[in-house]
Amino acid sequence: MLRLVGVKLNLEQQFGIPQKMDIIESILDIPVQDPKEEEFSSADLNWIKFGNPEHHDDVALIPYARVDAFIIGECSNVECPTRFHIERGRKRSKGSLKECKNDEYLEYRLYWCSFGPENYGEGGGILPSRRYRLNTRNRAARPQSMRGCTCHFVVKRLYARPSLALLVYNDRRHVNKSGFVCHGPLDRDAIGPGAKKIPYICSEIQQQTMSMIYLGIPEENVLEKHIEGIQRYCGSNAKVNSLASQYVHKLGMIIKRSTHELDLDDQASIRMWVERNKKSIFFYQDSSEADPFILGIQTEWQLQQMIRFGHRSIMAVDSTFGIKRLKYPLCTLLVFDSRQHALPVAWIVTRSFAKPDVSKWMKALLVRAHGIDIGWKVNGFLIDDAAAEIDSIRDVFCCPVLFSLWRVRRSWLRNIIKRSINVEVQREMFKRLGKIVCSIWSGVDSQVALEEFTQDFVDQTSFIEYFKASWMPKIEMWIDMMKTLPLASQEASGAIEAYHVKLKVKLYDDSHLGALQRVDWLVHKLTTELHSSYWLDRYADESDSFQNVKEEYIASTSWHRALQIPDTSVTLEDNNHLFAKVLSQKDSNLTHLVWNPGSEFAFCDCEWAMQGNLCKHVIKVNMICKNHQAYQSSMSFQSFREILMNLWRKPVDDSVALDQAVAWTHQMLDQIQKLVELNSANDIGSVVNNLPLKWVSKKGRTFVGKPSSTLSLPSSSKSKPLDSAARKKNRKRKRLSRLR
User: What is the C-alpha separation between 494 and 500, in angstroms, rounded?
Assistant: First the structure.
């Protein structure tokens, strides 16, 4: 027996035959691994069997800060280049568990290879991504790429040790259920005649190429960027360039020959489109005698952006677009991205704004978001229509509602300029309307003020008739909404208006006026040109490529254009504060006049403002005026102040309601002061150092609320510096989290 054991050990030493790996049952016995490489993959880690003899998984323990480096490394697999998406996710708040095991999660995310888990090739003779002949009837720019790949892993941020992440790799092979390689250069049936030599074109490169073609960029430039993308995986050679040229040319032909009319009947055509694009639909209800037509569109990229920028942030809506010209009005849900630009994350095509119908698609959208991140939540919802269903928003999203004046301001200014010829009369009328809106907090009777306005400008027949017909019947509803809800800032209003203008330019092109009454044309336009435009804008900004696109994207809102105007270019009138002068940045001999400075209803004589838009000169002048006491505060600040004062005045007796009002007021005041301090500070270190420490227990006083055992690493001489650094980093994160 001893001889057999000796032979076994000898074979293991000579030929590298491994022994059977032991199963570890305690997570505390798993060592923490931190590879030196900037990006690393599963091949750089030692995987350990964790569990019990009946059920165990391959796991590895790494610092939570290195999770992104691991994911990037896994995506760069030479044999199977891919991307990983979040299939499911869950979160717990700190302190939610009274008792917890060592492997309980604080955050849980299931990452799946983007070529799975669905398989669009099942039931067919060939996979959709295999070689196919050019078919001019194919409406899709490129077939779906889901091949049923089973590769997936789990990232668990440990509840007891938040600085660490447990990687659980369920299946490391990029194969389908049958066990065959389903993508990459080892896939014999991959797209194109040279797929064995050329790695698969990932979804990012594919979307980039499609976006450039949809936006009308010349084919030579598209091919150049396409080759740059695929050379990241396979290097440069003549064969790659030749096949890339064929791919771009064929893709361009398919897109140019595609049409929105899948059927002569618009209703049948939209049914066919819905059937072909189920992954881009979050709600669909066909029209009938009992139910109205509702179509909710959201691509996978839009869903990612909504989860990324909408969580714990503000969502906005551009409602009732095209109510007079389109067959069905278009409602757009927006989030504010990293530059505070309005980004469309969902489109709803419907004519019904009744509460039951609005609740249907809102609930469906929330369920879809929670399918990716169960903890996803909106902090505020910004509306622009006084007739909007506020109750549905509050019931579904459980968040406060804000109101934006951009639609009111734009409508009044456009019609004043359109229906009145005299410039002096135009700016005086716009100023008077602004004063009426601003006086709603001073106790002035709005109806009396409006009657005086119509009497004073009775000679402006065209505008007064428009105002009485379109606004007087519903003006009380709008004024009540302005009084009740907090008003949005000029930055948010300008961002929504910028999206509205871009949408109008894209849809109301003269070459498409005959198709405005078809829903399939509207859907095709949104999901191709408009979607591609915003995708390329975000990609250019985040990857620091396409510099022209990036510069245009940054300067697409009046707020960002106003930031480029130096303060020295603005001159305020000292006497009556009637106007301000703004020196043009393009022509030093040109000066723009901004009348009624300091107000959202300021009137500028520049070309952009004369089209009814909120221009950069008005915003810049208002930025300067906010630092002068002679000018009134912004309407959003007046609205916020009025809400706080009403909250303070509400309880008249010495009751619990008074205590609640005082507590809420102090809580909001404390958060505002911290945000102001953070925005005005030049050095984040000074803000952090001024924050007080929170003592939890004698043992954990150096860890700000975390017991010392939660950050302990396996005992070794090399781990002490890392342990100290982790404690300092977590202490700083804990302090910063209080500002949120």
Answer: 10
